[in-house]
Write a sequence for this structure.
């Protein structure tokens, strides 16, 4: 059986990436170490080609959350040692995790839509300090402070000992912020959307969450979390045929 071989420059052109990226993959153990010719040049095979394809399908997006990326590393690690059964198992888990994130992002968007379209909110006298608000959300006081510093939430209400407090209406807003952060939206994306909401431009709130405001925002996939997750799922599905090929190598 003929073994196809590739030089580093050929692989670089095939994938449209710098040769140093492939060298880095090799150094980090993402692909097998290449054999060298007498002149010292690396020689790669179809096994390496397959492994690099998997790396590109996983690393081809500028942002994913920690859980997705860690599972992606497991897929790459299994592929790097040609453990096809393990690689298949991790790939399935990887795809399922991405799908769960898509559902979570969709639910968050639906809840936000309901929040946006609720015209009249009952006025209550309930007040919550930062610790109480953080406990209700399941997060930390510092996280709530960070949202305040970033202009996502602001309260002019004060309780005992001149401590800042939040109303039930503020808590709704905090819950939306929390859900959006959990769903992977960036601070800047949420801030833009809430500015639109506060300014009365409710029709723009969801659009600015899922679409970049300008070309510079393309650098942050967090601003387009749903579209990024959908693209990531498509790429993840392409890994399984590569695992099939791995079994035949």
């Amino acid at each position: 059986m003929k073994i196809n071989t590739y030089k580093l420059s050929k692989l670089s052109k095939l994938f449209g990436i710098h040769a140093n990226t492939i060298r880095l993959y090799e150094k980090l153990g993402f692909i097998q170490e290449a054999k060298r010719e007498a002149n010292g040049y690396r020689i790669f095979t179809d096994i390496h080609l397959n492994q690099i394809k998997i790396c590109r399908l996983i690393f081809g997006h500028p942002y994913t959350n920690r859980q997705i990326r860690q599972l992606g590393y497991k897929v790459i690690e299994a592929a790097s040692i040609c453990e096809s059964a393990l690689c298949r198992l991790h790939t399935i888990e990887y795809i399922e995790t991405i799908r769960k994130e898509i559902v979570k992002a969709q639910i968050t968007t639906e809840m936000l839509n309901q929040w946006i379209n609720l015209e009249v909110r009952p006025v209550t006298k309930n007040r919550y300090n930062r610790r109480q608000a953080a406990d209700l959300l399941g997060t930390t006081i510092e996280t709530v402070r960070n949202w305040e510093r970033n202009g996502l939430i602001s309260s002019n209400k004060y309780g005992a000992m001149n401590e800042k407090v939040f109303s039930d209406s503020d808590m709704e807003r905090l819950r939306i912020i929390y859900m959006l952060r959990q769903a992977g939206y960036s601070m800047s994306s949420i801030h833009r959307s809430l500015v639109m909401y506060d300014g009365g431009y409710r029709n723009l709130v969801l659009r600015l969450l899922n679409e970049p405001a300008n070309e510079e925002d393309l650098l942050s996939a967090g601003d387009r979390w749903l579209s990024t997750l959908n693209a990531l799922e498509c790429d993840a599905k392409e890994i399984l045929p590569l695992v099939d090929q791995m079994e035949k190598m």
User: Anything to note?
Assistant: Residues 213-223 have pLDDT under 50 and may be disordered. Residues 84-117 form the longest helix (34 residues).
